[in-house]
Amino acid sequence: MQSLMLKLFIILLLSSPLTSWAAVELPLSACNRAFSIHVLSHEQRQSYGGEAAPAGYEWQVITAKFDNWIAADLVFQLEQEETLLVGSLHRQLYLTVDNQRVVRAKVLDTAPSADSFVLPHMGASQHIEVGYLTPSTAESLVLSYYHELYAPVELVLRGEYRPQTEPDPAAQVHENDVMALALVNHRLQAEFQGQDASPGWQWLIVEVQGTSRWSTQIPVRSYRADAALEATMAQPRVMEYIGADFMWQAVVDGHQGFAPNMQLSALPLTPAWLPEQWLGGTLVYQVPEQFAQLELVAYFGDFLAKGIATNPRAGLRFAIAGSADAVPPAPSLLALSDTPTPVMVHRFTVVEEFSDIEVDTNQQLALLQLTMANTSPEGGMMRLLGRLQLATADGTKLRPQQIFQNGQRLAEPFYLPPNDKRQVQLLYALPKDTHEFTLHYQGVSENHREAVTLSEKN
Predict the structure, then answer these.
(1) Are 382 and 372 in contact (CB under 8 A)?
(2) Contact 82, 122 (CB under 8 A)
(3) What is the pLDDT at residue 310?
(4) Structure confidence at residue 4 as a pLDDT band (50, 70, 90)
(5) Cα–Cα–Cα angle for 98, 103, 105, rounded to 5 degrees
């Protein structure tokens, strides 16, 4: 009992007064009712773990100590484990830069601890070291650790902590039950960061924001010692947007989806939306100069986390220019039934040249333009090059050379969103002066063989 009283006394000493002076000198300290974090050192470096900071950036290298000070009333009255799991530092120890965007931690193999670790009992501690790549001009740096059961621990390393609690007033905002997203602004231009867009194309630069709408129920006593034992509360949780590099698309004319250029973008592949504040970044796309409609669409996969329903969620669509009414209808040449991916073939034509593809003198280039729909509530990665082959009269089967979208090469597999369509072009090298073929389609639920005639270029 004496040992327990000593632990309770130490917990009282480590509570809120620490944060009042921690923001102005090292070591910084902050504590909730389960653990404390002490920042022991904070320095800037030009490289970390063998990775050099690019021009205009620097590494923030932080050493800190985690202590298990779980309150005894949580252990004995709520029957919570005295053991404390410190989850992934890379995923849960966030650095907010200039109150605008989040940077994830880099944890080296040579660091004092693994990416996650266990503090087995009250009084146990563990030293850590992490690095964050940030702009060298950053004026505000806030270190935050989010635990699933306890209050976040936040330490101001530099500047002021002024979280943006509302989206930009001029932004388009859409949301579902797990996150809210905002299109803050956008612009179209021929050059970006010294790179010219391809002929006939332009750069679309969009600034986006997001915030978490996810919460789970926990005992109020995890926050306050005076709370009733049976009282519960909603604990805001960090929500990740997984797959921003292919599921957050610029959609042209309704059915052409372009993934962002992540080398030019300033948003992580998996952005973390923190609760109760809006954070964001920039996404950069190459889109055609000519279009009837342009949208930014955030699609969603399955969510399997605690407290989240696994029902399908519709994509959040942000209008940029034009409208669906202005999109001209595509011609209909051939319909191929399939579940859940029916196909509509629009054109089958000869082309004199296309992209950088070269063929023998006894061959001709041909384009098969089609739209594939996804009638399923789940999106998926799609391959087409092996599913649509052309057969000649002697039975020779020819696979497409490449797949394109509005003349731009499209890598396989590509993302086919749920309850949506994608219009693509398949490029074939066919025998010269041959116009009659059999199209072999290998589908999900159906296979087809259809006669098609190659037409001359319009």
Answers:
(1) yes
(2) yes
(3) 83
(4) very low
(5) 135
